[in-house]
Write a structure and sequence with these properties.
By secondary structure, this protein is an alpha+beta fold. 21% of the residues lie in helices and 30% in strands. The protein has a 6-stranded mixed sheet with strand order 1-2-3-4-6-5, with helices on one face. The chain is globular, with a radius of gyration of 18 Å. 19% of the residues are buried.
Length: 174
């Protein structure tokens, strides 16, 4: 399926690393049926590793193919959007293969708007795939919360309290 850009299943260590990268700031929502079977899941993930993007999350929603169009995806996405607002995110992005019409329609129905389209950037099943970027604003204030989402100091970072932009002359690097 083009619902994911993965071409091979993740190994156990890759999946463990994925879960390790998700925690309180990047929650995972799992939908389980009455028999305890996983029928869908979704997550908020970091949009980019650079700290300036810390108020933006990317969402993923997956529902078992036999159980689509039953409200499971909508419930997962609604939960993720509520969590995003509670966590102080400003924007949530969806990056979707353009041929995934149901996913694009779900996101639009939940208030996302298309903000970009990248033609032929993916290649899977012997064909080029367009990617659609959709955006949803949490309605959070334009001024980010000061006590949340502080950029983590990277290992080996010797800058102390002085940032690189304070030392830069001319235009700051993006």
């Amino acid at each position: 399926s083009t619902c994911t850009s993965q071409e091979t299943p993740a190994t156990m260590s890759e999946r463990e690393a994925w879960f390790a990268a998700h925690g309180p700031q990047h929650p995972v929502t799992v939908a389980i049926d009455e028999n305890g079977q996983v029928v869908g899941w979704g997550a908020l993930s970091a949009f980019h590793g650079r700290c300036a993007y810390r108020f933006t999350a990317e969402n993923s929603v997956y529902v078992h193919p036999d159980l689509q169009r039953r409200g499971i995806g909508r419930a997962i996405l609604a939960d993720l959007l509520e969590r995003a607002r509670d966590l102080g995110y400003h924007v949530v992005l969806a990056v979707i293969s353009a041929d995934q019409e149901a996913s694009v329609a779900l996101h639009r129905a939940m208030g996302f708007t298309e903000v970009g389209r990248l033609p032929e950037v993916g290649y899977k099943f012997n064909r080029w795939l367009d990617v659609v970027y959709l955006q949803w604003s949490t309605g959070a204030t334009k001024e980010p919360p000061r006590k949340r989402h502080q950029p983590a100091k990277q290992a080996g970072d010797q800058r102390g309290s002085t940032s690189v932009t304070e030392k830069t002359t001319g235009p700051a690097a993006g």
